[in-house]
Amino acid sequence: MELLESLNIDWRLVLVNIFGFILLYLVLQRLVFNPINKVLAEREGDIQKTYGQLDADRAQMETLKNEYSQRLTNIEAEAREKIQGAIKEAQTTRDQIITEANSRAVETVAKAEKDVAYEREQAMATLREEVVGLAMGATTKIIGDGLDENRQRKLIAEFINAGTASNIPSARSNGVEG
Prior knowledge:
178 residues, mainly alpha, disordered C terminus
């Protein structure tokens, strides 16, 4: 203590200061440090909660991304299938149209051949009638009125049929249809 007195330090004052400092520490602990620590703890809890929410959101985003990717893949596959189906349907329709056109063409050609054959027969019949008429006229002039008309027609028809039967095969063998 003498040392303290020699330094001009009052030990009572030191004790009061120590006691005051402890009291000040306790008051600050109660009024400042505890509320600040509480706010800091709450803030740390909020930050941890935010990080947890961010991780959950990131995981959910990854899940949604994978789902959307899978949906997109399915949509693309479905679109390809629809396109392939449309192509097959178009090819089937094209083949059907071509088949119908070919059958119509065959029918048209057959009808045209029938029409040509009918027209040829009509022309031959008309030509025979004219030949018969000319032959009767010529025969009448040459022979006179000695044969009746029915007899003349019969003779001319026999002559034409005999001549036509022998001429038609030779005309067809020369490449001429008559």
